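User: Can you help me understand a structure? I only have the sequence.
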Amino acid sequence: MNNSSKKSAESWKRGVFLALVKLFHFIAVVQFVYSVYYDYAHVHVPSTTLKHKNRSKFGGKFRYLTFLDAIIQAVYFIIALINDFVGTNEVLLSKAPKIRRLKDYFFAAFAFPVAFNVGVTFWGLYAINRELVFPKAIDAFFPNWLNHIMHTNIMIFIVLELFTSFRTYPSRKSGMAGLSIFMAAYLGWLHVIKYKANIWVYPILDVLNLPQRLAFFAMSLVFSIGLYLFGEFFNEQIWVKEIKQASKVSSKKVN
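Assistant: Let's start by predicting it. Here is the structure, written out as tokens:
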């Protein structure tokens, strides 16, 4: 096979791969957008089935990190799909378009660490005592397929994204700042709900005393930062060759 034929074959393979990436992003958008819609519009758990019989509705679905993360995943994959058409997924770029820079930052600071925070925490607590995080009484109102989209698929799809699309991680300071602000704001939001409605959103917080709750919140922040570093490390291992190529090109331009 001559050079022209090789280039043609490689170009064809690249085109097929990019088409599959677009299809993957489209499926992810449909899945997460629909799950957010369905949860918001159709999942209504009667207060009589829960521990707090007169449970306040203050905050609605936005009380739950699971719901907020589903929104984050929907927004991320919408950005990724837009980038597929008006941005670029190329490795060697003189200057990445704004949509690509937004996509890369959103993945690093929010989509990856929050997805794993929700998934690992949920299934970890579920394995220990599901009543602390997802009482059995909710099963009749919260479909199993929706449960897996919001607690399992979030990790599966973000890992697939990690393998199929190259990204440049932002500076560690910038990425961690975004994640830390988000997580701190959410923990603050939990206390606002406690003050306004006199309930803890998650049953596990009811069984912890003040020092234990403070330790729990601190561990949540530390865990989130650890997930950010894990995502950054994982990305470097998967795309090590491409990152080296990008670094060489950047070095030549500086020199």
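Now, to help you interpret it: Residues 10-249 form one domain. The chain has a mean pLDDT of 89. Let me know which part you'd like to focus on.
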